């Protein structure tokens, strides 16, 4: 029977049988089966980009490894998510990324590097990027030496969320960069500063200016950080905000990717309009009485 006529598709993942709705991806089916598959360019609120190949798995009778993030389950498929072939592939992907990029601010990738024993010192060329950090406003910075070209920011700026299309990939080969049209400065570009690109970046290549300043000053202290959920006060939509604070000071705002209202995306007010909570000029705690 054709997969399109089935009401359920049954597959085997690491020996476990799973029945899912037609069109369900291997990654989604694996999650149902309690199997974790590493991802980088995938996000629950974006269309799969198939850019990183970190999520590839083995499917019997398939000559090549297949991307779990976008490959739909096929009836009767036998899938393996961990094998020597897969481990070697993931190890090489991580080594190539670590060879050219600064991944030190990506804890998830650091854990994968350790798990798969990736050793970027085996490669000497090309060397790590040395791009200067772009600081064009007080909202967020762009550090291209941490950019792994996952396409998440491009998709979030495009028809997956914002429909602004202010950024895209520019250049070729090792010179490929995420850029505005003709490298126009962000304040002069089509960017509306929703910050959705920052919200989906997996490596801190796009980073809130407040977080950047804390790190540069050597004051970044994860052990003193908390996250508090609240509702945005600017309009009646009811977006849920996650306030990330350090020592009772907000340094960034996000939204849950699985939230029914935001799907992780916000506008400029929700993402960056929290400065009024902690204005630079504090009210006097004692009266100023002149003699």
> How far apart lie the N and C ends?
93 Å
Order of helices and strands: EEHEEEHHEHEEHEHEEEH
C-alpha geometry: globular
- Main sheet strand line-up: 2-1-5-3-4
The overall strand count is: 12
Report the CATH topology name of the largest domain. Answer: N-terminal domain of TfIIb
Q: CATH H-level name of the largest domain... which superfamily? A: ADC-like domains
Number of helices: 7
Low-confidence stretches: none
How many domain modules?
3
Radius of gyration: 22 Å
For the record, the CATH architecture of the largest domain stands as Single Sheet
**Average pLDDT, to the nearest integer?**
91
CATH class of the largest domain: Mainly Beta
Fraction of residues in β-strands: 15-25%
Q: Summarize the amount of helix as a percent range.
A: 10-25%
Please summarize the sheet with the most strands: 5 strands, mixed
Structural class comes to: alpha+beta
What is the compact description of this entry?
Helix content is about 20%, strand content about 20%.
